[in-house]
Amino acid sequence: MAAGDIRIEAVSRIYGSRTGDVHALGPVSTVLEAGQTTAIVGPSGCGKSTLLRIIGGLDRPSAGRVVLGGQVVQEGLTGIGVVFQRDLLLDWRNVLDNVLLPAQLQKRDAAWARTRAMALLDELGIGEFALRHPWELSGGMRQRVAIARALLCEPAYLLLDEPFSALDALTRDQMGVLLQRVQGAGRTTSVLITHSIPEAVFLADRVLVMSGRPGALLDDIPVPLPRPRRLSMREEADFAALVRRIRTHFERTGVLTG
């Protein structure tokens, strides 16, 4: 599957519960452009992760639909890589075998997959740990393995659900720089869920700001900062202005105070 637009068409999600229905999301409509990274920020419980799961075919909308490159999202759709907050590595498989798992499930050529897996691990700075097991690695190293696994089969779409939120600040910054490098310009259409406003601005070409539950779009902000991006850009006025614009929405709605 070639990278294409992500069309979100009047998507909403309602969950049933013992005390009544919970309207978690929407309706939300927008188009995420092919080859771009779009970050989605919003308060806890606003439906960010629900929307990501619907985009990836891991959850079904109560109404509306998502179309990836002209194909309606459904279970079993290929060409999608996902990285969650938890790395979900298999502790009984070494690092290389964890990365190779998608290729084995898709019955891809073994020699090609091994060569690409090692190239990704090297690019992410952990090639020397290919034969180690996940329990021998730090949290940041485990997330690098998860990213390599998601990118192994060259997905057209990369979905990232708060992938760095459990990491310390220094490792989180480092991971953001590494993610930019391995994604490559225009090779994937990516969606990033994050609670960090600076992280959203640093990594994305565009930031969608969501309201509290049920999640709706409050703002759609282009990020015209040049790439590749350096961490020092966070100290520049253009970067600060974008962060301030996003933060203002949360101050107005009472999510942020002081």
Helix content: 25-40%
CATH fold field value of the largest domain: Rossmann fold
The arrangement of helices and strands along the chain is EEEHEEEHHHEHEHEEH
Task: Specify the structural class.
Answer: alpha/beta
GO molecular function: ATP binding
Family: Belongs to the ABC transporter superfamily.
Organism: Roseomonas alba
InterPro entries: AAA+_ATPase, ABC_transporter-like_ATP-bd, ABC_transporter-like_CS, ABC_transporter_ATP-bind, P-loop_NTPase
Topology:
Blueprint: E1 6-15, E2 22-32, E3 37-41, H1 48-55, E4 63-68, E5 71-72, E6 80-83, H2 95-105, H3 110-123, H4 139-151, E7 157-161, H5 169-183, E8 189-193, H6 197-203, E9 206-210, E10 217-222, H7 237-252
Parallel strand pairs: 3-8, 3-9, 6-7, 7-8
Antiparallel strand pairs: 1-2, 1-4, 4-5, 9-10
Helix pairs in contact: 2-3, 2-4, 4-5, 6-7
In short:
With 258 residues, the chain is an alpha/beta fold. Helices cover 33% and strands 23% of the residues. The strands form 2 sheets. A 6-stranded mixed beta sheet has the order 6-7-8-3-9-10, sandwiched between helices. Strands 2-1-4-5 form a 4-stranded antiparallel beta sheet, with helices on one face.
Defining key terms:
258 residues, alpha/beta, 2 domains, six-stranded mixed sheet, four-stranded antiparallel sheet, globular, ATP binding, nucleotide-binding, ATP-binding, ABC_transporter-like_ATP-bd
Task: Describe the fold and architecture.
It is a single chain. The chain is α/β, with parallel strands linked by helices and 258 residues long. It has two domains: 1-79 and 158-258, Rossmann fold; 89-154, no CATH class. It has helices at 48-55, 95-105, 110-123, 139-151, 169-183, 197-203, 237-252; strands at residues 6-15, 22-32, 37-41, 63-68, 71-72, 80-83, 157-161, 189-193, 206-210, 217-222. It has a six-stranded mixed β-sheet, with helices on both faces. A four-stranded antiparallel β-sheet has the order 2-1-4-5, covered by helices on one side. A hairpin with a 6-residue loop joins β1 and β2 (22-32). α4 runs parallel beside α5 (169-183). The longest helix has 16 residues, at 237-252. It is globular and about 50 Å long. Belongs to the ABC transporter superfamily. This is ABC transporter ATP-binding protein. Keywords: ATP-binding, Nucleotide-binding, Transport. It holds the Pfam family ABC_tran.
